[in-house]
Amino acid sequence: MNNYQLMITADDKQVVLERILQVTRYRGFLISGMNAKVNTGTNIGTIELLVRSERPIELLVDQINKLIDIKEVKVDNSAS
Fold first, then answer.
1. Sheet of strand 70-76: strand arrangement
2. pTM above 0.70, yes or no
3. Can you give the pLDDT at residue 42?
4. What phi and psi values does residue 17 have, to the nearest 5 degrees?
5. In whole angstroms, how far apart are CA 71 and each of 10, 50, 60?
6. How far apart are the C-alpha atoms of 53 and 51, rounded to whole Å?
7. Chain segment 35-59, per-residue pLDDT in tens
8. Are the beta carbons of 50 and 76 closer than 8 angstroms?
């Protein structure tokens, strides 16, 4: 199974985290860990999501990027 670390930058809204977790589950990725924090000055949140799957990570990244409040998604492949 492949491990990936996603760094997601998003607007600080209540539903963003729920939507990200929902897309992750729908795409068949297992969550290994998560860390989220908000910069209260800019109302931008940063979410570090550790996931694993046999599926290509692009399937998940493409879907997360389609969510309306997402600013950026970066993948750190060194988490393998």
1. 30-39, 44-53, 2-11, 70-76
2. yes
3. 85
4. -65, -40
5. 5, 18, 15
6. 7
7. 999 887 888 999 999 999 999 999 9
8. no
SS3 readout for the chain? CEEEEEEEEEECCCCHHHHHHHHHHHCCCEEEEEEEEEECCCCEEEEEEEEEECCCHHHHHHHHHHCCCEEEEEEEHHHC
Give the CB-side neighbour count of residue 76, counting CA atoms within 13 A.
9
Name residue 2's beta-bridge partners.
Answer: 53
Amino acid at 75: V
Phi, psi of 52 (to 5 degrees): -145, 150
